[in-house]
Amino acid sequence: MISLYKTVNDIEIYHFIHMELNYFNGSIIYNVLIFPAYFWSFEMSDYELIVELEDADIDHINDAGQAITIVKNLKNIPYAKDGYPVAWLAFKPFEKNTITWVNEYGVYASNTVPAPGKKLVQNSEVEVATVHCMYPFSEGMFHAPHLGTKNSYGVENSTIDTYVFGLNQSATVNSEFAKGVPLNAEELLGKETVEFTPHESVYVFLYKRHDNGVIISEVVSTALKLDFTTVHSITIHYDSATAKFALGPLPRYFFCLGELPVFASFSMDGSESRAA
Questions:
Q1: Contact call for residues 97 and 68 (beta carbons, < 8 A)
Q2: pLDDT attached to residue 44
Q3: Residue 201's pLDDT is what?
């Protein structure tokens, strides 16, 4: 079974091709059966998150051995829980941090034993997966997909062994590219299937410093949830008074007397002089 696709005017046309070899009088005859699997419109979207911090807060975060941590929101079907939470991105803060990504996903398989603090090793992957498709996994690799559920990415563990599966996604953090980082981790027994439905929303919070793609124990209760389903750029800041992130840029304070700032100085005899 061979899977091919092409893109025409943002319409992805997928075909599954079955090829048979027949020998007749020493010649090879190819019988090719082609049938359309899906027709749908898919538009790539860019997303941007800007995180601003004060210098004093950066010092406190670094002294505490923490990092800005971002977890992507996913729904796993048919599981009620969302598997193990994974730190998609974790980075040391600057005064202004810019994170960008596009809504393009891959699927991966791992033999990592899932536990908090474990970094997921992606042993096999489909770098750019196709939405609405189910990917069978066997013999250490993914095979040509078959039809899955709309708006989801499916994985079928065709082996008799237990593996960890999930989605991955690339991002750029402060001009550094992070390629195909795991978003989640779901343990599947042999012959089980799962479908992942990504949502363009993220959780942002402080967590102990670690690498990208590390399983964490929880998404802390103070995490700020950001919904990108209707917007493509969001700016937030760290609020030291509440010890969590908040919407909007850092507040800027300016003190003025009259129309222009006034600077006052005093001479030795106590008289005051002013300069605008």
A1: yes
A2: 67
A3: 93
Q: What are phi and psi of 60, to 5 degrees?
A: -65, -40
Whole-number Å distance between alpha carbons of 241 and 103: 34
State yes or no: pLDDT of 46 exceeds 50.
yes
| Under 8 Å between Cβ of 31 and 22 | yes
Which residues are CB-contacts of 230 (< 8 A; sequence separation ≥ 6)?
Answer: none
Please choose, from the candidates 123, 52, 127, the residue with its C-alpha nearest in 3D space to the C-alpha of residue 93: 52
Q: Looking at the predicted structure, is the pLDDT value of residue 55 above 60?
A: yes
Distance CA 32, CA 270 (A): 99
- The pLDDT score that the predictor gives to residue 257 is 52
pLDDT digits (tens, 9 = 90+) for 110-133: 999 999 999 999 999 999 999 999
**Burial of 231 (C-beta count, 10 Å sphere; 0-12/13-18/19+):** exposed
Phi, psi of 55 (to 5 degrees): -60, -45
| List of residues 6+ apart from 169 with CB closer than 8 A | 72, 88, 101, 104, 105, 106, 180, 181, 183, 198
Question: How remote is the C-alpha of 16 from its chain's centroid?
Answer: 29
- C-alpha span between 212 and 87 (Å, rounded): 6
Residue found by looking up tokens 């992606």 in the block: 122
- Residue 72 contacts residue 101 (beta carbons within 8 Å): no
The single-letter code of the amino acid at 80 is: A
